[in-house]
Amino acid sequence: MAKKTFIFILALLFIQESYGQSQEKVYSVLLLKLARGIQWPNESQKESFVIGVLSYTPLADELRSAVGSIKKGKHTITVREFISTTETINCDILFIPSFKSKTLPSVLGSLENNSTLIVTNKMDMTKMGSCINLMLENGKLRFEINASSIEKRGMKISTEVKNM
What we know:
The strands form 2 sheets. The protein has a 7-stranded mixed β-sheet. Strands 1-9 form a two-stranded antiparallel sheet. Mean pLDDT is 84; it is low at 1-21. The protein has 5 helices and 9 strands, in the order H-E-E-H-E-E-E-H-E-E-E-H-E-H. The longest helix is centred in the first third of the chain and has 36 residues, at 2-37. It is of the alpha/beta class.
């Protein structure tokens, strides 16, 4: 009996790991498309474009791999992983994973006057102030856009992003 339980647990871990890797890959591609499809205020004055990830190493690693030499306009894209919400002030995009969703109110408070695109992946987070929320629905990745939150932060959404 113990051997069957052990094999079952190993199978679950394998399935979870396989799913997790493909999920991070999809998230990274979508985050890079969002970076290209949104215009930040004073974008031409920035030295680099920063995508921040809050406490989610697999996504940060996947983004670093996907970014390579890709640029946003003339700017180098840098990926940073943050452990604490207090470190997230200098991001252009900040991804907050579902297991850190309770930090959204404090992030919103600390980034209130910043032009940071806050992306989450837990149900109803756009209602709480997230700019974009990624959702898995019937096996397909979909996203909600909180246009007023994006515009309030001084950013403009391209029609390409609206139509995705």
